[in-house]
From TrEMBL:
Protein name: Uncharacterized protein
Organism annotation: Candolleomyces aberdarensis
SUPFAM superfamilies listed in its UniProt record: P-loop containing nucleoside triphosphate hydrolases
GO cellular component term, pick one: mitochondrion
GO BP term (any one): iron-sulfur cluster assembly
Length: 195
């Protein structure tokens, strides 16, 4: 989005504090342009998969995507808190209304593994995943994985690169995160017919 909004300052930081204040029609048009006016090929080869990461909710972007293109699968990511699970329930209901297939759910920040402990055991800092599992069962949606809380995820996001490309895991939590994310990727690839 940073390329689409004007800079409001002459400083080196540019437009990092400029809000995107667009009404639904502008958002829909931007999504249309992103999908249909961008050359997604790589050296003449067609795109295999386009992954779109969206914030939670039932706004214009997921609705527009569901109506404009054939979506092969959707992965819903949540944290264990009840307020986040409320968004999951609403998001799944909306996606079902527009016939978007839901591949599964991922629980982020599910637990913490101590890196200095002899035998690391999951510590549920934000609560046990019982409510998440109950929501998944009620929605009849598979759980693809439960990711531990790992500091490197935040650092890689701030650095602008995916954590899976961050290099070798240095702690039990990092190893478990990468192993779980690999399993999620395999399940998604299989569900959408890439494996």
């Amino acid at each position: 989005m940073g390329f689409l909004i004007p800079s409001t300052s002459s400083s080196e930081e540019g437009n990092i504090d400029t809000p995107v204040v667009w009404r639904g029609l502008m958002v829909q048009k931007a999504v249309q342009q992103l999908l249909f006016d961008v050359d997604w090929s790589l050296n003449g080869s067609p795109l295999d998969v386009l992954v779109i990461d969206m914030p939670p909710g039932t706004g214009d972007v997921p609705l527009t995507l569901g109506q404009l293109v054939v979506v092969d699968g959707c992965v819903i990511v949540s944290t264990p808190q009840d307020v986040a699970l409320s968004d999951v329930r609403k998001g799944v209901a909306m996606l079902k209304k527009v016939s978007v297939p839901i591949t599964g759910l991922v629980l982020n920040q599910s637990y913490y593994l101590c890196s200095d402990c002899e035998t690391p055991k999951p510590q549920y800092l934000f609560g046990k995943p019982d409510s998440f599992k109950a929501v998944a069962e009620r929605l009849q949606t598979p759980i693809l994985g439960e990711l531990p809380l790992v500091q490197g995820v935040s650092a890689s996001a701030d650095g602008g690169y995916p954590y899976v490309l961050a290099g070798k895991a240095q702690s039990p939590g990092e190893s478990k995160w990468k192993e779980t994310m690999g399993g999620v990727a395999e399940q998604v690839a299989s569900a959408i017919g890439l494996r």
